[in-house]
């Protein structure tokens, strides 16, 4: 058979063009995702500083894999409505969801999420150099595992349903200049923290001691939780009985209220943005909340305290206990593009991308990221590692009813307490009774 | 045929109206019927209704005996009475002042109605910033008197703040309706009163306000219905707090549906609100129906 020069040229060019994407994809992603090229995935994505940085990398993912990405971006507490509605349908619009830690158990119990172990076992899909063991252990267990003890803790029965991304623990940030001025040592205990808060309130006009979240609903509960487990308190015990009116919880509530009283003006209505800004704008001497402060505190456009901020581990009350929270990525079971979704999850949480996002002020997901020189320049890495050691996977009960308990019971009772409308003990007794009603309705006490 | 023609004549309007009526029935009544059905089931967001246990009126009984529901109802009632009363006073007052053509009045009227044009969620965000304890302009002005109230952090002040916001947004609505009413008044009555020696206040009290009464009643009802359904502004400003001090009924319903995901409970509360607003709407229609005045 005679082959013309034109045919030979066409065939050669055609083969070259057809082969072109394969090595490109393989080089970029470490595996063969060429079959996924041309697919479009939809991600429910939060408006949040970490994710604002991460989304800048998405065009690179598309260039590397040929998978297009559409983001459905919204305020993070509003995502749950959209996610539940989408995941309840036979086929949902979302291929990847960003979930908050407190939703993970409910989502798995309602059969919404894809288990990830079989996907990681699929050699055609799993990135060869992904190294799951490099993901910060507390984050992987706290955000990814469901089905263990109490339904949400790591241990027997737990399976992986999500990858942490934008995860966080707590840290205490303080004003070095203000502490030096009043001969205060960086707080190691709650007594130190309370003493500092009182002194700042008394001696520094216009400044509060500790800034906290306190707006009615989710925020006030999140602020109160910062102190509950350090005082060895619990929301519910192993038998799912409410413990919010136990002496430990009452003590934590008294401390929370004192921090509000000695805090910046208007502290009782702060959401997270106002809470962090109060510290960054120099209106509070301390901040004890998410490590997401590390990035903004170094940014002169957002912070007036770039040179005067110091960090210590979340102080000890009765014991050391720090927050474990933030976000994770998961794939809804009703996604029609599961493989492309899994490719995205791996790519965005891979070591190279994690370093780049963290170096720009995002939140790290991997141990190796903490060792990277670019990250060490902006992160107090040693303190961060110490904070991770005390991150508590049982920071709040991650049960189906938690959102209702957090927002409709504690979110109201605590708000009444800090505004002085109701004394602590009666309010927390009421909260305990209301929690028990919810748990009874949900069938936790069946004999 | 005489009979056939008569029947045809009687049926013709119904035939022409039927498509619109059917669409309205489907579009308006079907969701209400579904909400009513939902209120009998303990169902969570995303779950099929039929898969759940039927609880009948037990959900209504539970919802209405809930102290937070009653508190929310009380807050809503208090809010509605206060804001509607003040809006009526200010709106009608402004209309009386500005009814005469003055230089630059068109510009002023346009500016005055601007708040009404802004999306409520934006209004909430704007006023949340205005009332911010640290960076808000209101506290910046008050700092002259060494005052720094925590507007949204104290129950009474937060309630005051949401009232101010609603009054700012909806006084123009009252103003527009009152102004339209005033301009429609037969001037011969006013002239007659003047010739009888009535003062300006007497003309307002005994001539203008009585003639304006039907429009004012309709305005009051429309504002009360709107106030009862208020959600976005409070959601953005206070999220119902501190405690439950600003949790309007619609916000409570929203939280039941999307925070606790108790759709049946939320539907039951919605039905209660619907009954109240429907009763008020019926009253409104009775007053505003032009056919009624013609005795038809």
At a glance:
The complex is a heterodimer of chains A (447) and B (296). Chain A has two domains: 19-168 and 324-389, Periplasmic binding protein-like II (D-Maltodextrin-Binding Protein, domain 2, 3-Layer(aba) Sandwich); 169-323 and 397-441, 3-Layer(aba) Sandwich (D-Maltodextrin-Binding Protein, domain 2), CATH 3.40.190.
Q: How far apart lie the N and C ends of chain B?
A: 29 Å
Which outline of chain B best applies? flat
The biggest sheet of chain B amounts to: none
Give the assembly state of these chains: heterodimer
Mean pLDDT of chain A, to the nearest integer, reads 91
Description:
The complex is a heterodimer of chains A (447) and B (296). Chain A has 447 residues and is of the alpha/beta class. Chain A has 21 helices and ten strands. Chain A has helices at 5-19, 21-29, 49-54, 58-65, 79-87, 104-109, 117-120, 137-144, 176-181, 190-203, 218-228, 247-261, 272-280, 294-297, 338-349, 351-359, 367-371, 373-378, 381-390, 402-418, 424-441; strands at residues 40-47, 68-75, 96-100, 145-146, 159-160, 163-175, 208-211, 284-290, 309-313, 324-330. The longest helix of chain A is centred in the last third of the chain and has 18 residues, at 424-441. Chain A starts with a helix and ends in a 6-residue tail after the last helix. Chain B contains 13 helices and no strands. Chain B is flat. Chain B starts with a helix and ends with a helix. Chain B is mainly α. Chain B has helices at residues 2-38, 58-65, 67-98, 105-117, 120-130, 137-142, 155-183, 187-195, 200-228, 232-237, 249-258, 263-288, 290-293. The A-B interface holds A 80-81, 84-85, 87-88, 110, 214-217, 220, 264-269, 274, 278, 281, 283, 403-404, 407-408, 411-413, 415-416, 418-419, 421-422 and B 45-47, 68, 132-134, 148, 150-155, 158, 238-245, 255, 258-262.
